[in-house]
Task: structure prediction
Amino acid sequence: MQFETLQKDMITAMKAREKARKDSISALISAVKKAAIDEGCRDDIKEELVDRVILKELKTAKEQIDSCPKERTDLLEEYQTRYDIIKAYAPEMMSAQEVKDLILEQFAEVVSSKNKGMIMKNVMPVLKGKADGRVINEVVGELCK
Result:
């Protein structure tokens, strides 16, 4: 996801007077800017950084939904709207089969050792941000059997 795309979408939401959408995108932009400042790349924000922040914010929104009391339907609706908006910007995640194929293709020699820790150590830098950590863990566990 390009940072400029987020900014343009926020302007569009402002013009359309879509408050929930504008607020969600604004929060994403703020989080991306903060992460960029923390990493020292304030002027040159990379796509990888934007995707990483979006995934983190998506996880936070999901946790808000999960921890919200069921009787607070107003809050649940607000959290769900925020989650849906952020999800639209999140990068496409790899399926379990795609993860398995990639691991077997690129890390065959490590997989043959059946050492789960060693496999995870080699695989995570390549798949981080491209696949869900739980899916990667399940696939590696399956391969180690």
Q: What stands out?
A: The chain has a mean pLDDT of 87. The longest helix spans residues 19-39. The CA atoms of residues 6 and 30 lie 11 Å apart. The two ends are 37 Å apart (CA to CA).
